Amino acid sequence: MGYDLLFQQAVKLHEAGELTKAENIYRQILETAPDNADVLNLMGMIAQAKGLHDQACNWFYRAAKQAPSSAHIYFNLGLSLFNDNKPIEAIDAYQKSIQLQSDIKETYNYLAEVYRSLGQTELAKQNYQKALELDSSYLDAKINLAYLQKDISTLETIVSQNQDNAMAVYYLSRLYDDEKAYQFLLKHNFPIYDIQLRLGELALTFTPNTAEEYFKNALELNHYSVTAQINLGNFAVQRQDWQQAEKLFRRAIELDKNSFEAHAGYAHMLQLSGRKSEALDEYRAAVVINPESAAVSNNLGLILKDLQEYIEALGLFFNAFSKDKTREEYQINIAETLTLLYYQNPDEAKKIAANWLKQAPDNSFAVHLNAAFNGETSEANQIYTQKLFDNFADNYELVLARIGYQLPRRFREITGPVEGTIVDFGCGSGLIGVAYKTPFSNLIGVDLSEKMLVLAEEKNCYERLAREDILSFGKRELSTIRPKLITAADVCCYMEDLEPLFKICTPNPLIFSIEQASDEVKKAKLLPNGRYQHNPQYIAQLLAKYYGTIEQHPTILRKENNEDVKGMIFYCR
């Protein structure tokens, strides 16, 4: 087949959207005519249509070299340079196109778009107006100029007169507040990429269950959409469909290797699916792209903490903390990592903790940690405990299962079923309630953490839940309630002196746990992790002042660093 016929066939395929077939023929032509400017330009347009703007630019540069007087080639080059995040080069290409042919209205319009993206609004306005001077009815320029000037009234008029103009609808939605924009787009739900993507982003806030469908529509309309790929990847992560999520995030990174959101999303997926070493690499790539992201610094720190790289992890946690000092999750991660470092290198941990306290003297975590490291009692203990469990709530029961927590079951084995009112001090997420609830029991839960009480309420085991300090609640109400049993599972480890607890509980039956101290500890010892160990003999002597029958049941409280943590359960009547 001759050159002209091949070229005509390729162009027909190109116009019909058969891009790959057209590309194959163009490449065949270039084997014999490598400097054909028309074919080089068309190859660039195919790459452009596929969203491969870096490749498109290379084709257009080759075409411009062979046909330096072609305004259209420079126009195409400007479009791909802009989409390849090279606005300065795009301006140069558009200006060359204008020098070669000054009456193409689209060139001014697209040049204005570049200026607008750079925040150079006056230059953008001038070029939109030049486009309109060439054609006063040029609707795209009218819409763009109205959007630039935030002229809602003009855009509303354009939409009312051009109901099928998706660009006007889209830009008007960008000027409305999110709720109004969402309702507006639902009424103008065009099968256009930008509109489907915008609907997906808005639906994440207003109707999250519909958002995924909009992102699927957007991706169907634009197979090269990085944003759609990332959002669909996030939905796959929610379903724990790791294979699909990985496919989507890897494709997004392939399309845009500098996408912070793609690297961060992929890293999060790898972390959740247990592939920590790979997640580490992706988080590091994300940090390089955007070192200002507190969330990514925090997530990278979590992996390094698990790998026992405590110093590096702390650097990242402190970076996250410096970006957002109100986020308690970051503070807790610092506290936990400093505690782990203390067991490895006490002097270094004390030094870092002291510096944190110096930088943030009112921070309850820093105050508590410095006291704990120096074996001192802190007035911040109660605040620390409340905040700790508020942040711990979402993963509380998963962590307890992992460390072998069995106190509710052990309590029930020791006391047997209880008929009547049970007061559960430090009820947490309600596991004591699950262990004790029968048709003949009536449970009252008391805890400082509001988030824990929400979890406890979901168990439907408690007749009443109170957010209060247990001592305050006990002094005011126990004499009236007169419970058949008081429980305190894993509560006393946050109290140094237990006598006030025993005073308010007696004569009501009481079952509680302590973390057992070594023999040389006379009463109680504050650990670097902020918990107290107690001497069982001293506790037994103390209890004898208030109770006649005292049972002691040695137990394993949990696993910590793969070692059993010894404890004691006391049952007093």
Q: Could you say which structural class the secondary elements and strand pairing correspond to?
A: alpha/beta
CATH class of the domain at 396-572: Alpha Beta
Q: Any idea what the CATH superfamily of the domain at 396-572 is called?
A: Vaccinia Virus protein VP39
* Percent range of helical residues: 55-70%
* CATH second-level architecture of the domain at 396-572: 3-Layer(aba) Sandwich
Q: Which value, in Å, is the CA radius of gyration?
A: 33 Å
Question: Which fold name fills CATH's third level, the topology of the domain at 396-572?
Answer: Rossmann fold
**Spatial order of strands in the largest sheet:** 3-2-1-4-5-9-8
The percent range for strand residues is 5-15%
Termini separation comes to 102 Å
Overall shape: it is elongated
User: Quick one: biggest sheet?
Assistant: 7 strands, mixed
Low-confidence stretches: 392-403
- Tell me, rounded to a whole number, the average pLDDT: 89
Structure in words:
With 573 residues, this protein is α/β, with parallel strands linked by helices. It has a domain at 396-572: Vaccinia Virus protein VP39 (Rossmann fold). 64% of the residues lie in helices and 10% in strands. The chain is built from 31 helices and nine strands. The protein has helices at residues 3-15, 19-32, 37-49, 53-66, 71-83, 87-100, 105-117, 121-134, 139-148, 152-161, 166-175, 178-187, 193-206, 208-221, 226-238, 242-255, 260-272, 276-289, 294-306, 310-323, 328-344, 346-359, 364-373, 381-392, 396-402, 407-415, 431-436, 450-458, 470-481, 499-505, 536-543, and strands spanning 420-425, 441-447, 462-467, 485-488, 510-515, 524-526, 532-534, 550-560, 563-572. A seven-stranded mixed beta sheet has the order 3-2-1-4-5-9-8, with helices on both faces. A two-stranded antiparallel sheet has the order 6-7. Strand 1 (420-425), helix 27 (431-436) and strand 2 (441-447) form a beta-alpha-beta unit. Helix 1 (3-15) packs antiparallel against helix 2 (19-32), helix 14 (208-221) packs antiparallel against helix 15 and helix 19 runs antiparallel to helix 20.
